[in-house]
Specification:
By secondary structure, this protein is mainly alpha-helical. It contains three helices and no strands. The longest helix is centred in the last third of the chain and has 18 residues. The chain starts with a helix and ends with a helix. The relative contact order is 0.15.
């Protein structure tokens, strides 16, 4: 997968688009249900219905950690 595709997948999305993206990602995997956590902004979340990403005291999954890192790096580049 090219880096431009990966970046688009990890970009913040409007709420309706994000819900659709989460459902599409989950549908592409037979072992996964769609993330329903409104606080989680990652379209590639692997937590499913029990997602606790971006919830105080919740564990954040690896795809969401990568999403946050990419957004932080993007913001830092924009600030310079």
């Amino acid at each position: 997968m090219s880096s431009s595709v990966i970046r688009r997948e990890f970009m913040a999305r409007p709420a309706d688009d994000l819900v659709d993206a989460k459902r599409a990602f989950a549908a592409s995997r037979t072992d996964l249900e769609a993330c329903e956590n409104a606080n989680c902004k990652c379209a590639r979340c692997e937590c499913g219905k029990a997602c606790a990403c971006d919830v105080p005291d919740g564990k954040t999954c690896d795809p969401c950690v990568a999403f946050k890192k990419e957004n932080s790096e993007r913001a830092a580049r924009a600030a310079t």
